Amino acid sequence: MYWWKMKMLSCNTRMLFSRYKLQNPLCFITKCNTFKFYFSTSAITDSSSIADCLPLTRKPNQTYPVYRERGIESSSGADSFVKLFQQFGFSDTHITRILSKQPAILAYRPQKYLKPKLDFLISVTSCETDVVNIVTKNPFILTRSLDNHLRPLFDSLKSAAGSNENAAAVIKCNPFMLSFCNSSSFVRNVQFLQTVGVPRNQILKMITKYGQSVGVKHDKFCKVVLKVKDMGFDLSSSYFREAVLCLSFLTESAWESRCEVYRSFGLSNHDIITMFKKQPAVMSFSEKRIWEMLDFFVHRLRWSPSRLSTTPNVFLFGLEKRIIPRCSVLQALVSNKCDIKDIMLQTILKMDESRFLKTFVTKYEDKVPEIMDAYQGKLTFGDYNFESESKGKIKIINSNRTISTMATTDSLALSPLLLEQSSDEKGHESVIKLFKSFGFSENHVARIVRKQPSIISFHPQKSVKPKLDYLFSITQSRSEVFDVVAKNPVILGRSLKNHIIPFFTSLGTLTGNDQHVFAAIKRNPYLLSNCVSTTFLHNIDFLQKLGVPQIQIMKLITEYGQSIGGSHAKFRKVVLKVKDMGFDLSSSCFLDAVRSFSFLSDLAWESRCEMLRSFGFSDHDISSMAKKQPVIMNFSERRMRDLLEFFVQKLRWSATKLSTSPNILRYSLEKRIIPRCSVLQALALNNCNSKRLLLTYIVKMTESRFLERFVTAYKDEVPEVMDAYRGKLRFDEFNFESES
Prior knowledge:
Keywords: Transcription, Transcription regulation, Transcription termination, Transit peptide. By secondary structure, this protein is an all-alpha fold. Among the domains are: about 5-145, no CATH class; about 260-315; about 665-740, no CATH class. The chain contains 44 helices and two strands. A hairpin with a 2-residue loop joins strand 1 (about 30) and strand 2. Helix 8 (about 145-160) packs parallel to helix 11 (about 185-195) and helix 26 packs parallel to helix 28. The protein starts with a helix and ends in a 15-residue tail after the last helix. Residues about 1-75 and about 390-425 have low confidence and may be disordered.
């Protein structure tokens, strides 16, 4: 940055101290030739504007030498800066956030340096709102050169994404790409991914989610990608993307130092690679965190290195906030000889807070008084032996245990009727032997037969084998076929000639090759059995003509495939309806709306609208609610009525308030909303000064946080608060909001 810009910024910041006397002190930092300052929006009074608070003027008609040298009047500079941003739709809050993140833009001339870049962003996104969101999230964009950086990088991104719309969608998802990626390296890195054989949809996801990794120096990027490929990662899996991201910002010395920590706890090089392949994030952690996690699992839980390497996802959870408290709860239950469910520890750690609380804490609170202290981290144990006591009543099991249910052909639960339907007495054995000859494990076979028992009546060589041959022929990964068939064995019941092959052909036309198709099938195995191939291609073609970005179409296929495989006439009607409602074709709400409305008849839609109108909703309120949270229109009439009665009649919410915050309706009325409102009402009746928060925010809180802030904190002062939390205490009227 030029010296005069630095001097101007320093001068302006000192003036902000003297003139406005902000209550929140400024933190003025000099680092890497960039000045940063932070100020609170609370410092701006109602009678003042952003322009008044910008540190660009002190007294009328007074200028500083630095301004005179550049020909800029300080007061006019402040006004022109604010007016420029307001012309592009930025509010005072947006401008405040931009300045708090990147104050250096105060030194740029608005018309000469800032306006051309904002015009450029408008031209590529075609939406002023998107530009406001992008710049507010990453104002550093405005400090980069338009001709030397922004234009070349966007052109490279457009080339990689396939169209201007796809490139704009990527920027919306990851605004930091435009400031941190090297445009010259970016093109070469994308070309290298294509050369290596990475599917196009994977490249788009890498650009969208992990764009910074694709923008690193070309030599380093090539080295990283080849290293990840040599480790055996599937190029079409999400783990490949995560591994590239991890290694892109991890030096060789850092990698080796982390490996040394793992080796010091008994893990071999093979264990380390296995762990990294299953969860690449484990190598991104600091050495301190890795050491603390290993020390707990190896020394206190007595896990073996092989077990750790096969279940690395446990490393993703917080040691102090989740792992130790939950293990302490289990140990407390074991110590008190409580009979609990037979569940693996990694499954217990993965449980959401509400389910864990209900299954292992509140259920035993009367029998084990110290259970709440263990859950809150106040009670810990020097030794944890709950897993080693699995032979008694407590059955927390070891992950190395094999699944015994239906694990062998002898134990497969086959009904007499199914045996009669098979071609001969040993027909079911022939089908099972066929699966095993293709490499399916006993566990896979058990899952297939359990989900689709009629499959044993198929002729192995005529009906099953040709379909398996075809599936194995279009992918290089046999494990992917095992997973897809085990998740949805109905596939094997569809016609190979009339359904499976035409479907792959249709989807291949869109994605480019069979590898991309199978990546979509892997993510949503039900696509292959539920979609009608003849209408599938028509629906995709319609979306393309309508202007839906390809990345959105791929998401619609992989995440909501059933909605795109229905009748073409109905699908066309639904998409046009969603578009006419004003949905952005590149937003996730558009996908949710298409999915929700695809399975909602006109009669069902109208009946739900009538119910909303009966509670005072206008057509505008209904449209606003559907645009913000489309899934609400899929609720049953009974559920919708119960929710509306509670919010409108008991909480006295207006229709306008509900239409502007419809996300609250997604939560369970009986399990979350009523118990939490009962807790708040109990606190209000006892004049407890709980922190003033919006109800929408309180309902959205995790169980542990709500419990800590509103239940356990007042348990002694308000004894009935626990009964309210458990749903045992209810109120006919709730007035806590009006008393807040």
